[in-house]
UniProtKB/TrEMBL annotation:
Belongs to the protein kinase superfamily. This is Protein kinase domain-containing protein. Coiled coil: none annotated. Residues 1-26 have a biased composition (Low complexity). Residues 1-44 are annotated as: Disordered. The keyword Glycosyltransferase does not apply. The keyword Endoplasmic reticulum does not apply. ATP binds at K92. Residues 27-38 have a biased composition (Basic residues).
Length: 391
């Protein structure tokens, strides 16, 4: 009797424990699901709700199709409601979130400023036609452009572009950004996603034994001026997408300037050439290690006031032994991170000798010391742009 009671009690306890565990598991799953739903609601909150054929701005535009969603809002194709012409535009609909709308208004002012300086659109900066508010949303109507260079690289399975296209793209990008610098403006977020083709027509060309897509017209436009900063304005300590970030920005120096854009452009050009990100890093320390592996060691003046100065060794004997002041092996988070840095090739190794002038162009831009980077106004005249490449 006692044994039976004990067994029954044990079974009951087991069922209770199992039930409790199952209940806890279900509760945890529901909690996670609620969190995911909340995150999705937060991501979707404030988006402009639309219908195809809907008219906006007192009937001036009609929505023709959806183009894409992003963190700041969504992009719709619109056309003018005009009996004599049907011009198509890209309308950026900013989410009804105060910080996003404020950022968009700043971008609008910057674009009007640029367009006042470049009335004929000679410097390949995206053209803004109008901006307006409707209810809680803010709208920016741009010229309708084609795919980004990143989209084309992705479509081509990350194979890169033939050198003659890299040359054409490089010259346009350098001329455009040199114009910004001439007007005391740093873009701060140059990357293939923010460089667009000007039409939607593409063609196939042979490259590396394959057929790849390239734009029918090679004319580019630079977009996304939400983070653009004038020389006299407050400089945020964090700018750029990580993989394109210049050393002085990684190190946390608040006195970065337009030379940080030059570093970004070099990273972009290497990506256009190879099809892949050059500095594929996961954090600042790995990025620093990659820079030293690819370009050479930083010296004392580069890191003496850095937020990461404790990760550097000041000892000359250490430098003589390791050819680097950065103590990467002792601060690396994993063996795989050490291996990624070890496998990184220098750009001289990536680019064949027949493209020596391209190597020289990149070398003049990827200087650790920002003051040693060649200004864009001089890079425009680099010999690389005089070279004629065969198809």
């Amino acid at each position: 009797m006692s044994s039976s009671s004990s067994s029954s009690s044990s079974m009951s306890s087991s069922r209770s424990s199992s039930s409790s565990s199952s209940s806890s598991s279900r509760y945890s799953h529901k909690k996670q699901q609620r969190r995911k739903n909340k995150q999705k609601e937060d991501q979707d909150a404030g988006h402009f709700e639309y219908q195809i054929g809907m008219k906006i701005k007192a009937g001036q535009f009609v929505i023709t199709r959806f183009l894409g969603d992003g963190t700041f809002g969504r992009v719709l194709e619109v056309k003018t409601c005009n009996a004599t012409c049907n011009n198509y535009y890209a309308m950026k609909c900013i989410r009804a979130v105060e910080r996003y709308i404020e950022s968009a208004k700043i971008e609008t002012k910057i674009l009007w400023y640029i367009q006042d300086k470049d009335k004929n659109g000679a410097f390949n900066i995206v053209r803004l036609f109008t901006s307006f508010e409707r209810y809680d949303n803010y709208f920016m109507v741009f010229e309708r452009l084609g795919k980004s260079l990143y989209d084309i690289i992705k479509q081509n399975n990350y194979i890169g572009f033939p050198i003659q296209y890299v040359q054409s793209f490089a010259k346009q990008i350098i001329i455009s950004v040199a114009f910004l610098h001439q007007n005391q403006l740093t873009h701060t977020d140059l990357k293939p996603e923010n460089i667009l083709t000007t039409n939607c027509e593409y063609k196939l060309v042979p490259f590396k034994g394959k057929q790849i897509w390239v734009p029918e017209r090679e004319i580019l436009k630079i977009i996304d001026f939400g983070g653009a900063t004038f020389d006299h304005e407050y400089h945020s300590t964090v700018i750029n997408t990580r993989q394109y970030r210049a050393p002085e920005v990684i190190m946390g120096y608040p006195k970065w300037n337009e030379n940080s854009d030059i570093w970004c452009i070099a990273c972009v050009l290497l990506e256009l050439y190879t099809g892949e990100l050059y500095f594929q890093n996961k954090d600042d320390l790995e990025h620093i290690a990659m820079i030293e592996k690819a370009i050479g060691p930083m010296n004392y003046r580069h890191f003496k006031n850095s937020k990461y100065k404790t990760f550097f060794n000041y000892d000359q004997k250490y430098f003589d032994q390791h050819r680097s002041y950065f103590k990467w092996n002792s601060v690396a988070p994993s063996d795989s991170a050490i291996e990624r840095v070890k496998k990184l090739k220098t750009f001289e190794e990536l680019i064949p000798a027949k493209h020596a002038l391209f190597i020289d162009l990149i070398r003049k831009m990827l200087q650790i010391d920002p003051e040693e980077r060649m200004p864009l106004r001089k890079l425009i005249h680099h010999q690389f742009f005089q070279q004629v490449f065969q198809d």
